[in-house]
Design goal:
Elements lengths: L1 H21 L1 H10 L14 H30 L1 H24 L3 H14 L3 H11 L2 H29 L6 H20 L12 H7 L9 H32 L3 H21 L8 H21 L2 H10 L1 H18 L5 H26 L4 H29 L1 H5 L3
């Protein structure tokens, strides 16, 4: 029963956190693609597509910082208080976002998205909590279910946006803020209290000296970072720009984009809930196959028509969900000595770096053709698949246990 309550609390936190994070994705493309210029989509007279790219970049920048430091901070101060405080802060971030949209203030919107992203880096804390307290196949299943909760949030967030936009563009963000406020007492009740740390170092020292990127001093973790960065660049190119692709290819509005997102996130959620059991195949081999599937879906979107593209968007959810389950479980087993908070933080940080790289690169490439960033993402994902398989062979030669363990 204790494990059920723990997993349920973690999944609900992940669900409510990502509902708020996913709200802007169907809302922003029509705002910046609108022909009517205003203070928001033509701030300082800059091209609307450039402003769109910057708006996509700032939230991952906050996620980058939050993911790098929140996991190690939770290793020091405990998972429970970090999850509670970050949920409160993210609620404030959504409230500021709503106000910025109401007054059409692009700078305030950027600040709000940064604050929200900074505190949404708590996903690494939730994963570390499960990795700490669960073992074996239960831990792997729990991480898969937590991933499913995150995916379900990405599904419900756009649905919420599409369903409530008729009442005003700020309504979805106020709902997200209230939902996060409701999750705080849930975390307080459901998660176990941790013994206070006896260390006297300040939080700033911990954040500075023990952030997740310090793990790059270790050779195998550097390899993990490079491969994960390449794969997540492919994933980010898909996430960030398929809504704009839908707008340009078929003139989709926020509601139509949200329904396509339903298919994608529904696929990822179902895949996560049904997978995560033991498997005799080497985890890195499976991760390589799934990375191939990710690259194929992104490449198909780049070259397909609207209906082929929609099929690619929906089916992308299968290899993406399977890859995340395998790689997170393998990392929890292999690199646990470095601290689960730091390791899960490194995975989250890598994804944030990829989002920033892709948003900046994409904001330039889409001025030429939106499909260019998708082609680049497909190539990046294909290289990651090749490198994962090569890394598996290298590890098998030096340490057969590394690739033979079930993920």
């Amino acid at each position: 029963m204790k494990n059920i309550v723990l997993i349920t609390a973690a999944c609900l936190l992940g669900l409510l956190s990502t509902i708020g994070a996913s709200l802007p994705y169907p809302i922003l493309p029509p705002l910046f693609a609108a022909e009517a210029a205003n203070n928001f989509n033509h701030f300082l007279g800059l091209p609307s597509k450039l402003l769109f790219g910057l708006a996509l970049t700032i939230n991952p920048l906050g996620l980058l910082i939050g993911s790098a430091v929140l996991g190690p901070l939770s290793d020091r101060y405990g998972r429970r208080p970090l999850l509670m405080y970050t949920a409160l802060g993210a609620a404030l971030g959504h409230a500021i976002t709503a106000w910025a949209l109401l007054i059409q203030s692009y700078p305030l919107f950027i600040v709000a998205r940064f604050i929200t992203g900074l505190l949404e880096g708590n996903s690494s804390v939730a994963r570390a909590m499960l990795a700490d307290q669960l073992q074996g196949s239960l831990r792997l299943r729990a991480m898969s279910w937590l991933n499913g909760a995150f995916y379900l949030g990405w599904l419900l967030g756009p649905i919420l946006a599409g369903a409530t936009l008729a009442w005003g563009i700020t309504v979805p963000f106020w709902i997200a803020a209230i939902a996060l406020l409701l999750v705080v007492p849930l975390v307080a009740i459901a998660l176990p209290r941790e013994a206070p740390s006896l260390l006297t170092t300040s939080w700033w020292q911990v954040a500075r000296d023990r952030h997740s990127l310090n793990l790059l001093r270790h050779e195998q973790l550097r390899t993990l970072f490079i491969v994960q960065l390449a794969l997540t660049c492919g994933v980010a190119s898909f996430y960030e720009f398929y809504p704009l692709w839908l707008v340009e290819m078929a003139g989709y509005n926020a509601q139509a984009i949200s329904w396509v997102n339903v298919g994608l996130c529904g696929t990822m959620t179902i895949t996560s809930l049904l997978t995560g059991g033991p498997n005799k195949l080497p985890p890195l081999l499976r991760a390589s196959w799934y990375a191939c599937g990710v690259a194929l879906a992104v490449g198909t979107l780049a070259v397909g028509n609207i209906w082929v593209g929609i099929a690619a968007i929906v089916l992308f959810g299968i290899p993406n969900a399977l890859y995340n389950t395998v790689i997170q479980g393998w990392c929890a087993e292999r690199f646990s000595a470095h601290g689960q908070g730091a390791v899960m933080g490194l995975l989250a940080t890598t994804f944030c770096i990829a989002n920033i790289v892709v948003a900046l690169t994409g904001s330039v490439l889409i001025l030429i053709d939106t499909r260019l960033i998708l082609v680049a993402g497909a190539c990046s994902g294909a290289w990651a698949a090749w490198r994962l398989n090569a890394w598996r062979r290298e590890l098998a030669a030096s340490d057969p246990v590394a690739t033979g363990a079930a993920a």
